[in-house]
Write a structure and sequence with these properties.
Length: 364
């Protein structure tokens, strides 16, 4: 049975300490206490807590070592045999600096997660906050079944709902920016000249053209191996393709439109990778060139959007476009269905011959 001790404070008020001691065979197997401002609150807590401790396994759980959210995150990152992506690992590490990480798992509720969302929203876009919570939700989903850590997956779901309504989280805004032929002419000329002056640098004019015709993301391009190329089938294995919930090990065969295959065949075989360049180098070169040439609000990823749009403009069906882009859900391609066959804006493009001519290697 629980007991209540009244204790006078130095300021003249009285505090009520509720104590619970449980014995078995004359041995104390569990004890805990909590202090309240009112006796009634202490009585209510004792009744509620004793009922909880009567449940099978509850005393064992109460006596188990205290596990914080930071502990759960560390357990997740060290126990997973599947490789965790660089972005997810970085996000989970950054969450550990927030106050919620020091809180014991069983004490974390939806309001704590909403508070985290509010903190994350300072200086971050709603879609970025949503990505942070999605990565954290992976920890909540398996902590209980896998290790017995009492993280409430429903609390995470409730926090998502609240965060969306309060504007802390949200979906990424779809960009409709596409490069014009004039902008591409400037970029291609700039990159061709840069590579002529520095032959060992990344041939960005080939990379840009391949991004458009293949619809590949830059990180996907840099992982493609020569062994991943099926020339007869005009397809390529895209390793670790971006996909919600799973990226590492998500290898997908994607069709290669004829211009994309010809660009690959023009690349020198200097190693295992077809495009042996870093994503940072590609991104920096593209951003720097756009700034130098006065091309505003154009991202490298917009080349993929342009490439998928081109497929529909030349009359490609949704299934065929999905086979090229790698979209698992045809619903993801619905945004392009408003495009009507209007011909290929790259037909007769003056750079087609340039990027399909063999690129001479200078690595030796």
């Amino acid at each position: 049975m629980g007991t209540i001790l009244a204790r006078a404070r130095s300021n003249g008020t009285t505090a009520f300490m509720a104590k619970i001691i449980i014995k078995r065979a004359s041995l104390v197997i569990h004890r805990e206490s909590k202090t309240f401002e009112r006796r009634a609150a202490a009585v209510a807590w004792i009744e509620k807590r004793e009922a909880e401790l009567d449940r099978p396994g509850e005393i064992e759980r109460a006596n188990a070592p205290k596990v914080t959210l930071a502990d759960a995150i560390d357990k997740y990152t060290t126990d997973s045999l599947k490789e965790i992506g660089r972005t997810k690992a970085q996000v989970l590490r950054s969450i550990k600096v927030y106050s919620i990480a020091a809180k014991e798992c069983h004490l974390i509720n939806s309001s704590d997660i909403v508070s985290l969302s509010k903190e994350l929203a300072k200086g971050r876009k709603p879609q970025t906050v949503a990505n942070y919570l999605s990565h954290l939700a992976a920890v909540f989903a398996i902590a209980g079944p896998a290790w017995g850590y009492r993280l409430d997956a429903q609390a995470m779901k409730d926090a998502f709902t609240v965060g969306k309504r309060l504007g802390y989280t949200g979906k990424s805004m779809e960009r409709d920016r596409r490069p014009t032929l004039d902008e591409l002419d400037k970029l291609m000329a700039h990159f061709q000249e840069s590579h002529r002056r520095r032959p060992r640098s990344c041939p960005m004019h080939y990379v840009v053209a391949f991004a458009i015709f293949s619809t590949r993301r830059q990180e996907e391009m840099t992982r493609i191996l020569w062994d991943d190329l099926d020339v007869q089938g005009s397809r390529v294995m895209v390793r670790n393709m971006k996909n919600p919930g799973e990226k590492i090990g998500n290898n997908v065969w994607c069709d290669l439109p004829e211009p994309a295959l010809r660009i690959i065949q023009a690349m020198p075989k200097t190693g295992e990778r077809i495009f042996p360049y870093s994503t940072d180098a590609i991104s920096a070169a593209f951003t720097r060139a756009c700034k130098m040439l006065g091309i505003e609000d154009l991202h490298f990823h917009d080349l993929r959007h342009d490439g998928v749009s081109r497929l529909f403009e030349i009359g490609t069906s949704i299934p065929r476009a999905a086979a090229v882009s790698g979209h698992r859900s045809w619903q993801s391609l619905q945004r392009y269905t408003h495009l009507r066959q209007a011909g290929d804006k790259y037909a007769g493009w003056k750079w087609n011959e340039t990027v399909t001519s063999p690129l001479v290697s200078t690595s030796s």
